[in-house]
Amino acid sequence: MLVTFRAEIMQSVTREDRTFRIEKVLPNGRVKLHGIEGEFRETAFEALNFLREKSRRS
Q1: Is pLDDT at 16 greater than 80 in this prediction?
Q2: On the chain, which terminus has fewer CB atoms closer than 10 Å, C or N?
């Protein structure tokens, strides 16, 4: 699953460069991401837009 950091957290970075794949969901609800160090909470990411994700796959 892909998640995108909120623009406020990574200013002046394109959506593609703010998007990472989840490596592992931890028991405390945080996630580890491929290609970036640390643990992150759900609030660090943009809300999921299932319609946008669906249109990308079409």
Answers
A1: yes
A2: C
